[in-house]
Amino acid sequence: MASRTDSSSSSRKVSEYRARLRARGLRPIQIWVPDVRAPSFMAEAHRQSLAVAQSDRTSDDQAFIESVSDWPGE
Fold first, then answer.
1. CA-closest candidate to residue 60, choices 52, 70, 72
2. Is 51 within the bounds of a domain?
3. For residues 4 and 6, what is the distance between their CA atoms, to the nearest angstrom?
4. Phi-psi sector, 20: left (phi>0), alpha (psi -120 to 50), beta
5. What is the CA radius of gyration of the chain?
6. Does any domain span residue 60?
7. Burial of 26 (0-12, 13-18, 19+ CB in 10 A)
8. pLDDT tens for residues 33-72?
9. DSSP characters for 30-45?
10. Which InterPro entries match (predicted)?
11. What is the dihedral of CA 64, 37, 51, 54, to 10 degrees?
12. Is residue 17 assigned to a domain?
């Protein structure tokens, strides 16, 4: 188990690091993103990809994706 000195030393280092970042004009934010490993995410991604694949506008959708994509060598 870490001693009290170790944890206070870590806290101090983190605090100093954050202070340096703030001095550079940065600020902390928290971002929540989907967990791509979750079964519910995988099921929803699959559901949406099937819906797109079965759409009567598939070629229009693909044409749009290709027009806004930056493919290497093109």
1. 52
2. yes
3. 5
4. alpha
5. 23
6. yes
7. exposed
8. 999 999 999 999 999 999 988 988 888 888 888 899 887 7
9. ------TTSHHHHHHH
10. MazE-like (IPR021558)
11. 80
12. no
Q: What is the tally of structural domains in the chain?
A: 1
Parent domain of 40: 34-69
Instruction: Let me know: does 52 contact 58? Beta carbons within 8 Å.
Output: yes
Identity of residue 53: A
Q: What is the pLDDT of residues 2-43, one digit of tens each?
A: 555 677 899 999 999 999 999 999 999 999 999 999 999 999
Inside any domain, residue 14: no
Instruction: Compute the residue count for the chain.
Output: 74
Gap between the Cα atoms of 10 and 5, Å rounded: 9
Type of residue at 15: S
Q: How far is CA 36 from CA 4, 39, 40, 45, in A?
A: 37, 8, 9, 9
Residue 74, both tokens: 């093109």
